[in-house]
Amino acid sequence: MTFKYDVIVVGAGHAGCEAACAAANLGSKTLLITMDMNKIAQMSCNPAIGGIAKGQIVREIDALGGNTGIVTDKTAIQFRMLNRSKGPAMWSPRAQSDREKFIHTWREIIENTDNLYLWQDSVKELVIKNNTVTGVLTNMDVQFSAKSVVITSGTFMNGLIHIGKTQLRGGRISEPASYGITEQLSELGITVGRMKTGTPVRIDGRSVHFELMTEQLGENDFHKFSYLDFEPRKLKQQSCWATYTNKEVHRILRQGLPDSPLFNGQIKSIGPRYCPSIETKIVTFPDKTEHQLFLEPEGETTREFYLNGFSSSLPLEIQLNALQKIPAFKDIQIYRPGYAIEYDYFDPTQLLHNLETKKIKNLFFAGQVNGTTGYEEAAGQGIIAGINAHINCHGGNPFILARNEAYIGVLIDDLVTKGVDEPYRMFTSRAEYRILLRQDDADMRLTEKSYNLGLASTQRHSLLIEKKEHINHLIEFAKNYSVKPQYINSGLERLGTSPLKQGIKLIDLILRPQLSISKIAELIPALHKEIDKIKNRKDEIIEATEIRIKYEGYIDREKMIADKISRLENIRIKGKFDYNSIKQLSTEARQKLDKIDPETIAQAARIPGISPSDINILLVLSGR
């Protein structure tokens, strides 16, 4: 047994697991400390990964060499590609996972990762010397030393659970909260706040009248999260089910509002705007007579279901009475009620872009402690924190993703530049370069970077090179191959598109919105032959090629805009100015620039309250 490590990760949630694996795979001797080794990467809320923008983050984690996408593919019991009716920049993969198998699969990965060790305990204190973290002290009074420490404690720091007037101390239901770190860091000048999140009732499927609900089937095509070459979704696929609340449900919920911790002053912190409780919905939207609910399976064999859309901290009897007014739930039996939880977080503007704290060297924060929501946002921060914790131990430049390189880059830049006043959730609308940040090309954007860093495996890099070669070959073939009207017009008419009047290049045919490469290949034997040369991941490669061809103009235009903005990213100003002494700046600008101390002119421009005239002053003072 050793007590000396390069990196210690505190908390084995989604952020902690990715952080620990990244550091260990890069070569750092890493210790992952968790209260319960049987709850590793627990899906505390809904048993699903991905969704709008979140699915893109998971694909980016995978492209970097992380594990969330692999685990999801292996444990998925339903998969869907959301937003198919929109352009590919908006497509977002989402999967339901078997909750227990998700945990087991993650633990299997962790226990078989070289350089990675587990310790079951809770950390009560950080060992800090000369504003540098050097280790941790646990509840068992065991001290471990480390060159870097990553805090990924989720909702556990001073966690307080609410079910009506009942309050329980805990980080999750039936799990103890964590104490000590918040108080210690607060004394050292780290700004601490409180946030709130919640989770819905868990329902016994044997009591549900499924015949009164709308079934939602999954998809079973080639799409998955990981870019590695394996067959996903080995488990039996399950359906989700949809239903609605009604006026009677809302009446009962309104009667219970005086006992709601959210409305009687019991909960004082701010909850997530984009995942509100059912009681918040009926207050915010009093004119709506119904809200959609989704009943989601928790596993391949369990009868436990998660009621998405019915997050609540109302008393148990109010939750039950309201649910029984929904026809499908008239005989409802539940495993546990919904509850809210308040927890501590740290103002993320206190972080550098590598997720290291500004005040304490070698101390990193990732996940909900930075004011975010969601497994995906946490895991994305985790892999970046783990990479940079390793770099701090062994030397090298910080690993930072720009806003035009990854949704993870947008997420972290938003956090450290703008801060949060409510739990942060990623959306495609937060990314100004979302045409460049599609889910289909995360490997093209990130795998080479990660491979050069030493994290992405040789196998992953080889798959990327093979994919690039196939895509480039198909594009060149399409540019050079000529299509004659007499050989294809009858087929085009069958496909509902206008016939050719003269010969054209194949690429011009692919550009037609009614046509796809697969459909055209049925009409052109030469194209079919080229496609048949692709032995592995054929559908994935064809889709990526088609997106490149059809959206080339949009992609090139967005790259040009990103290149222009990147010039401001190259003008570094951190530490160059005493902002409070620059009287030409507005008072708000002086205060915010002094607080955040931006790395570059571009980051300064993204700080809320910084005007174009303030940026012009900084450019002049920078000699630009």
UniProtKB/TrEMBL annotation:
Amino acids binding NAD(+): 271-285
Family to which the UniProt record says this protein belongs: Belongs to the MnmG family.
Pfam families: GIDA, GIDA_C_1st, SAM_GIDA_C
Organism from which the protein derives: Coprobacter fastidiosus
UniProt KW Cytoplasm keyword: yes
Listed InterPro entries: FAD/NAD-bd_sf (IPR036188), GIDA_C_N (IPR049312), MnmG (IPR004416), MnmG-rel (IPR002218), MnmG-rel_CS (IPR020595), MnmG_C (IPR026904), MnmG_C_subdom (IPR047001), MnmG_C_subdom_sf (IPR044920)
UniProt cross-references to PROSITE patterns, sorted A to Z: GIDA_1 (PS01280), GIDA_2 (PS01281)
Gene this protein is translated from: mnmG
Residues in tRNA uridine 5-carboxymethylaminomethyl modification enzyme C-terminal subdomain domain copies: 549-620
HAMAP family membership: MnmG_GidA (MF_00129)
Name used for this protein in its record: tRNA uridine 5-carboxymethylaminomethyl modification enzyme MnmG
One GO term of the biological process aspect: tRNA wobble uridine modification
Keywords: Cytoplasm, FAD, Flavoprotein, NAD, tRNA processing
Subunit structure: Homodimer. Heterotetramer of two MnmE and two MnmG subunits.
Signal sequence coordinates: none
Annotated compartments: Cytoplasm
Gene3D superfamilies per UniProt: FAD/NAD(P)-binding domain, GidA associated domain, C-terminal subdomain, tRNA uridine 5-carboxymethylaminomethyl modification enzyme MnmG/GidA
One GO cellular component, as annotated: cytosol
Described purpose of this protein according to its UniProt entry: NAD-binding protein involved in the addition of a carboxymethylaminomethyl (cmnm) group at the wobble position (U34) of certain tRNAs, forming tRNA-cmnm(5)s(2)U34.
Keyword Transmembrane in annotation: no
Residues involved in FAD binding: 11-16, 123, 178, 368
Cofactor(s) annotated in UniProt: FAD
One of the record's GO molecular function terms: flavin adenine dinucleotide binding
